[in-house]
Amino acid sequence: MKLQGQVAIVTGGGRNIGEDTSKLLASEGARVAVVDMDRGRGEKVAEAIRKAGGDAIAVVCNIADEASVQEMVKTVAGKWGRIDILVNNAAITDKKNILDTTKAEWDAVIGVTLTGPFLVTKYVAAQMIAEKHGGKVVVIGSTSGFLGRRTAIAYTAAKGGVVNLTRSLAVQLAPHNIRVTGIVPNKIGSPVGQDEFDPNRPVMNLRNRVGVPADIARAVLFLVSDDSDFVVGTMLYVDGGMTAIMEGS
Fold it and tell me: pTM for this structure?
């Protein structure tokens, strides 16, 4: 097992990418904190991990709220005595034009999708530093952070910010032996913030199939394992080659 004895936190762990990532890390020996705003979703994933022979807890946390994040980190460290892995996966989207977006909607998306990874990484990294054993952090980005969209404004801004947040985190945390990387998916599984998978969701990539959460989970496992020890500060595209295609070509 690649992660035996390690402790992992997965935000947005109650469904989609977070669910598959939580289960895969657990199958490789990690004890997993399934962090989600919805207690039912988190408990369902944690229970599935335990039934499969793994070790997991569900923790309710609003990652846009500093006090909530601090309490979550305290809970996980108190439960298992350490934190080795953080997967910043939770995000929400807006699907709106700038002319139709209110400031409250903008603030909500930025709060979860950009401020959330900042806050969670800040307090998890502080815990890792106190424990003096280093760690691994993966931030889930999006192709929307590199491309303009007609159907979103706050989300594209937040995911664009996630790119340089990841790079700066890598630079600032490297002296503490905390290795930070990111992943760039495109239209993986269910749309952001939704439970139901739409098999007819249109995609454009070089694999001629819809991406699924397991595709991202396997990439996360690579980035948090020793297999990627020399990979740091980069965004790994797991988009089926979508960004290699010029629209209209």
Answer: 0.95
